[in-house]
Design goal:
Blueprint (H helix, E strand, L loop, with lengths): L1 H13 L1 H7 L1 H12 L8 H25 L1 H8 L2 H7 L4 H33 L7 H26 L5 H18 L14 H6 L1 H13 L1 H7 L7 H8 L3 E3 L2 E3 L1 H24 L4
Antiparallel strand pairs: 1-2
Helix pairs in contact: 1-7, 2-4, 3-4, 4-7, 4-8, 4-9, 4-11, 7-8, 7-14, 8-11, 8-14, 11-14
């Protein structure tokens, strides 16, 4: 299984075009904020950048794993997977090789994205987070990668051709920014769409990250008007609710782990049948 993981990770990093397109959604979000959206906030660069950082990291965890999982479709279309399944390697190990390879790629690329955005924030006059905050962020990156890989792995396991994969990946890359509340604050979304956005796993990961990156900028921005903090947090997706249920951090973590387990299970079942 280790050989398959290494092979799949190498294939991703060897294909520079695939790497670029797996980060395209991330780059588009940054460009949109730099050119248009960032000027609409009244609380300074730190507030913009902290909100942007959380959302982009949540998106990167999904899109990079999606790029890494293109190997599943390619192996299926070229019939390489039949060679794998004809070998003495157990089918469970082959499926795990695909999944874990994508997870490794997601963690590496999402961590690089977080470092790049930290540097970007410093250039714009921001400050570093505390050491405990970065440790928490590292844990959430792992969680976001687990959840994001599971979700897109299930989708990719249903795809049989590279053309279909290209279409689906474009749709996912376009929709994820909207459904995760990245292109606009959650408070601006239509009422009927908000439950869908809250239930979308990357939205949960983005919320957890916002509670790390935005805590100090919010406290600073509203130090003279603390009565407005709650409303602002709700509007920006710092807090999430589903009906009367307030989504706390433990609930969000449990939700991400449960949905990941479900998607991984479904993906495993689909990948065991890929040779047929």
């Amino acid at each position: 299984m280790g050989v398959l993981i290494k092979r799949n990770v190498k294939l991703y990093f060897r294909d520079k075009v695939n790497m670029f397109f797996s980060l395209l959604s991330v780059l588009l979000i940054i460009v949109l904020f730099a050119l248009f959206l960032g000027t609409g906030f009244a609380h300074g660069n730190a507030m913009i950048d902290s909100w942007l950082m959380a959302g982009v990291i949540a998106v990167a965890a999904v899109t990079t794993s999606l790029g890494a999982l293109s190997v599943i479709v390619d192996d299926r279309q070229t019939k390489r997977n039949k060679g794998f399944y004809a070998s003495p390697i157990r089918r469970s190990s082959i499926a795990a090789g695909y999944i874990l390879g994508a997870f490794v790629v997601s963690v590496i690329m999402t961590a690089i994205t977080a470092i790049g955005l930290t540097i970007y924030g410093l250039i714009r006059g921001g400050s570093l987070l505390s050491a405990p905050a970065y440790l928490q962020m590292a844990g959430i990156i792992l969680l976001a990668s687990i959840s994001g890989t599971a979700m897109v792995c299930f989708i990719v396991s249903l795809i049989k051709t590279n053309s279909a994969y290209g279409t689906i990946s474009t749709i996912i890359g376009t929709l994820i920014g909207f459904l995760a509340g990245i292109y606009f604050p959650m408070g601006q979304a239509p009422e009927f769409l908000r439950p869908v956005m809250v239930a979308f796993p990357p939205s949960q990961a983005a919320m957890l990250l916002r509670r790390i990156t935005m805590a100090d900028p919010i406290a600073y921005a509203f130090y003279a008007e603390p009565e407005y903090i709650q409303g602002f947090q709700d509007f920006m997706g710092y807090n999430l609710t589903l009906g009367n249920l307030e989504i706390t951090a433990p609930i969000s973590i449990a939700y991400l782990l449960i949905t990941a387990a479900i998607f991984y299970g479904l993906s495993y079942l689909n990948m065991r049948k890929m040779v047929k």
